[in-house]
Amino acid sequence: MLHLDFVEQVKLLDRFNNKTTTGTLYLTATHLIFVESNVPGAHEIWILHHHIASVEKLSLTTSGCPLLIQCRNFRVVHFVVPRERDCHDVYSSLLRLLRPVSYDELYAFSYNPKQNEQQREVGWQLIDLTAEFERLGLPCDQWQLSDVNRDYKVCETYPRDLYVPITASKPIIVGSSKFRSKGRFPVLTYFYQEKKAAVCRCSQPLSGFSARCLEDEHMLQAISKANHNSRFVYVMDTRPKLNALANRAAGKGYENEDNYSNIRFQFVGIENIHVMRASLQKLLEVVGTRSLSVNDYLLGLESSGWLRHIKAIVDAAIFLTKAVTVEGASVLVHCSDGWDRTAQVCALGALLMDPYYRTLKGFMVLIEKEWISFGHKFADRCDQLDGDPREVSPVFTQFLDCVWQLMEQFPQAFEFSEWFLIQLHEHVHSCQFGNFLGNSQRQREELQLKDRTYSLWAHLLSEQHNYLNPVYSPSFAERHPVLEPSTQPWNFKFWRNMYHQFDRTMHPRQSILKHTLTLKESNSKLEDTAHTLQAKLQTLGVSTSPLELHSWSREHRLPPRPQSLILGAPLSRKEAQQEEEVLGEEALEDAPDGNGGERTVEGSSATENGYGELQSSFSSKNEPAMVSLEFGVARMTC
Amino acid sequence: MEFAELIKTPRVDGVVLHRPFLPTVEGTLCLTGHHLILSSRQDNTEELWLLHANIDAIEKRFIGSLGTIIVKCKDLRIIQLDIPGMEECLNIANSIEALSTLDSVSLMYPFFYRPMFEVIEDGWNLFLPEEAFKELESMTDEWRLSEVNKDFSICPSYPALVTVPKDIDDDSLCKAATFRHGGRFPVLSYYHKKNGMVIMRASQPLTGTSGRRCKEDEKLINATLRAGKRGYIIDTRTIAVAQQAKARGGGFEQEANYPQWRRIHKAIERTNILQESLIKIVEACNDHSNSMDRWLSKLEASNWQSQVKEILTTACLAAQCIDREGASVLVHGTEGTDSTLQVTSLAQIILEPACRTVRGFQALVEREWLQAGHPFQQRCAQSAYSNEKLRSEAPVFLLFLDCVWQILRQFPCSFQFNEHFLVMLFEHTYASQFGTFLGTTAAERVKLKLSQKTVSLWSWVNRPQELERFLNPLYEPNSLVIWPSVAPQSLLLWEGVFLRWNRSTKCLDEAYEEMVHIIEYNKELQLKVNSLRRQLAELETEDALPQTP
């Protein structure tokens, strides 16, 4: 099928400095693999075809034909293939491989983690949304489970099980759904039991300039009536007002407050998928620049608008949270179709309101509910199949980014660390597991994913020790059931560990997160050892004091904290080991005169950091023409 | 002069104090010669104890007879005092203004401060040049300690003792001094044990437009090169600035006269530009109405992060020459008292693990900043809020600390001290009860008899009770050279200084406490397990039990 299996003598160029590695490039049905040659314990790069966003053949150079590959997980690799024909072969093979046209071609359908059918089934049952709604106290005296969408007849992008006010009869639901884009009528997505306030979601009404729908008005009335704490329901249109206005011309639009007497209408101004796509593209362009100056970086951050968009989403989630938890009002959230911005805001709002979603499993439930079941179009947005590039957008990435921003402000609030978020991002694009395939639940059922693929949740839970946040505190959740983040602009930061996850030189060489996580794991092992030893001593007739370590005094005067506890996180444990191996090599290569004792400690290399490669050293050349400094401005002829 | 003359109203009742993220306090305001004190009447505790020297600027406002004084401090904190009575308020404001701008060094608080603790280890005697030289002698015999400047006449800003190449006599030093700005002839700054390469520092050579040269100067720096080796001269100024300096009698080393050296120009900004940068970044951080875009654009316009990057890059370059190229380095800018010291001291942090310990860092500050003649008193006379005309204020040392913090963030386990230690040093350079940062040169410090009349900061810091707060729980000695990343994505805003008073750090502090707890608990568990093992082993050998362990 392929013209070739491997190409030798391929050079891998680091994108931020002049470092090159030579190795062999292998092309398999699922991966592109680069193996460094002639090095014991060689460095390997595995790139899943689904992760490849673009392949570019650059113009021929003296050393060969350059191939630039950009991945959806923000890896950028630059190969130089010695022979142009080989390069072209790799290029055209990749082009074919990275544009699957049918779901059957996706990795998930061939991936086999060596589990039996029963394990597979158990894996798919780990996250159960019925149990989640039960946890929320549903159904209750005001909200019921409706079977109106049992066969996806009313709305094919919604899940089968939907919770609606008890007073919303079937005709009202059906009538309302006909007045909403794609039939996405208002349904409950989160219930704040303390105030009996509901978060509901839907798509925009087909109001045009003057159309109205009594059933839809009844629907909102029913939502309002279901909450005795508030006389009105907030309607949050997450779009900028201008966009909503423009939609009216197309027979869509937003709720007219005159027709819905019991609502308070609010725009929150999150931009659409096209703006977000362009924003990320611009951001990646800026941070991918070699020898980037601080000012170009900051100006680029600003002009990309990325952090502005992130802040807009967090602002919207805070608005939602305050309305629900402080005012006790129910809120109806929508955008245009109700599957992008609406998912972002509802999910982030729920995360702020409910500590359960800040646990590892709770976060899975949240994603399963707000994103997967309510039909965020993962297939389109993540470009799983060769489709319309205008449908691709980093909506889910933005959500993860928002969560990370919250983690930075509340380091103890989340059971998981940013490694978990990065791993999620990896698999939303990997198509290795069935969870995120397709655009809706209905489609997933048609694809028989539960029988033909494996669940990511089972996989992640099986290695959850990698993703735990060592400083997570359940008591923090008791003290702060509702998170109230600050929205001062300086709290919104560029997420280096996500967007530069493969650019090793940019990260701290020592990771506090990794360090603390290791110690925490070691602590539980030590506790076990101590118990075993005590038991042994007891059998020998020695009574030891029980293992009551006088815990470290909390009255300690507090040393100041480093600004963030999340520093430099390798992608996964495996990756982390690879990192260390590489660092080990680095140190080895750096160690002077084979001074082996120094190698175990993490160091780093000067040449990689690119502040000036003194290209010509005096000892080798008599008259160096130039001292070239890559990062420094000095470029002078001596 | 009596301080009493400046204090018309020494005491006002019913003053309300507003501070960011703290509840307001009502109490009695007292003015003393050196302090502004507010104690709440409830429980007799002092809520505020502020050195006048820490006050950078004040603003007065009146609404009816209620006066308000906004006090802006050099540590960047802003507090507000509501004072009933217009006259009282005016008196207080005038007193604060007068007391916070006293020009005479001998009236400064360190001369009046009496420590409440017993000085066990006198910081004034901790870091003597003789001691440092003894250490150097144990590694090499190529250097000697010269007393040529013992009466500070050859170079007023150098200490009495300097380390110079062994083969260069004092006469040559005197001649070389005449060829360097302010007499700052090349002296040893750092000896890299691993390969014997050195960092030297000086000021610019006085070549002028005529291209003057000085054989002794050439001989002096060539004497530091091993046979057949060459070195790098890092001029912290751009070539354009260095060229302009010629017109004022300064200049740079001509290739023809220094054939064994290669010159590299960098672009570390001059002091007044750095001060502007500080003012702008502080303004940006204190503005709570910024949109995302305005915040980023103000951050960019302040250029602060650019200064950090340029200084770090230059230091890394110097370190790279030493460690990678195996070449010695001479660093200078114009006067050799600012950017030069930033570069030489940061290079040592990168290269020398000892500088990353508490004592080593203190020694570095003592050696490369205090002894080396960084004019702390001039540079730190005013901070970011002052409305006074700027003289020679500049956050040169703060930028150095910021750079150290950046490296600390990238190598969080390689430093024995923590961020708070750096913040504490920043505070004490601007206002302190200790004499350490008073004066501008070693000579002046001798004249002021600081070591007899004031307490050293180090005497206080090194007390175990104080030191504990400044120790990094993650520290594990790292004997490697640590190369920081200078990519803009790797450099962060030093929130611990610039956002310190603008945000609540409760959640971050608690998380840090939890991390410390995990580390401490691990140590405890290890001790416990070891002792149990020992106990078990002893029993087993004693009783010679047949069981296998």
From TrEMBL, chain A:
Q: Does the keyword Nuclease apply?
A: no
Q: What Gene Ontology terms describe where this protein resides (cellular component)?
A: cytoplasm; nuclear envelope
Q: Which residues form the active site?
A: C335 (phosphocysteine intermediate)
- Reply yes or no: does the keyword Lipid metabolism apply: yes
InterPro entries named among the record's database cross-references: Myotubularin (IPR030564), Myotubularin-like_Pase_dom (IPR010569), PH-GRAM_MTMR6-9 (IPR048994), PH-like_dom_sf (IPR011993), Prot-tyrosine_phosphatase-like (IPR029021), Tyr_Pase_AS (IPR016130), Tyr_Pase_cat (IPR003595), Tyr_Pase_dom (IPR000387)
Q: Which PROSITE patterns does this chain map to?
A: PPASE_MYOTUBULARIN (PS51339), TYR_PHOSPHATASE_1 (PS00383), TYR_PHOSPHATASE_2 (PS50056)
Question: Which residues bind substrate per the record?
Answer: N272, I273, C335, S336, D337, G338, W339, D340, R341
Topology term for the membrane: Peripheral membrane protein
Q: Where in this chain does the record put each Myotubularin phosphatase domain?
A: 123-499
Q: Name one GO molecular function term.
A: phosphatidylinositol-3,5-bisphosphate phosphatase activity
The compartments listed are: Cytoplasm; Endomembrane system
Q: Name one GO biological process term.
A: phosphatidylinositol dephosphorylation
Fetch the Pfam families from UniProt: Myotub-related (PF06602), PH-GRAM_MTMR6-like (PF21098)
- The Tyrosine specific protein phosphatases domain sits at 304-348
Q: Which UniProt keywords apply?
A: Cytoplasm, Hydrolase, Lipid metabolism
What spans are recorded as compositionally biased (Polar residues)?
Answer: 602-622
Region: Disordered; residue ranges are 585-623
The record's similarity note reads: Belongs to the protein-tyrosine phosphatase family. Non-receptor class myotubularin subfamily.
Q: Could you identify this protein by its name? A: Phosphatidylinositol-3-phosphatase
Query: Which species is this record about?
Result: Electrophorus electricus (Electric eel)
UniProtKB/TrEMBL annotation, chain B:
Describe the family membership recorded for this protein in Swiss-Prot or TrEMBL.
Belongs to the protein-tyrosine phosphatase family. Non-receptor class myotubularin subfamily.
Q: Highest taxon of the source? A: Eukaryota
Q: Can you give the residue ranges of the Myotubularin phosphatase domain?
A: 123-498
Q: What is this protein called?
A: Myotubularin-related protein 9
Q: Which GO terms describe its cellular component?
A: cytosol; endoplasmic reticulum; perinuclear region of cytoplasm; ruffle membrane
For this UniProt record, give its keywords in alphabetical order, as a comma-separated list.
Acetylation, Cell membrane, Cell projection, Coiled coil, Cytoplasm, Endoplasmic reticulum, Membrane
Matching entries from InterPro entries are given as:
Myotubularin (IPR030564), Myotubularin-like_Pase_dom (IPR010569), PH-GRAM_MTMR6-9 (IPR048994), PH-like_dom_sf (IPR011993), Prot-tyrosine_phosphatase-like (IPR029021)
Membrane topology (UniProt): Peripheral membrane protein
**Location relative to the cell:** Cell projection, Ruffle membrane; Cytoplasm, Perinuclear region; Endoplasmic reticulum
Just give the chief location class: membrane
A matching Pfam family:
PH-GRAM_MTMR6-like
Q: Gene3D superfamilies under this entry?
A: Pleckstrin-homology domain (PH domain)/Phosphotyrosine-binding domain (PTB) (2.30.29.30)
Example GO molecular function: protein phosphatase binding
**GO BP of this protein:** negative regulation of autophagy; phosphatidylinositol dephosphorylation
* Keyword field contains Plastid: no
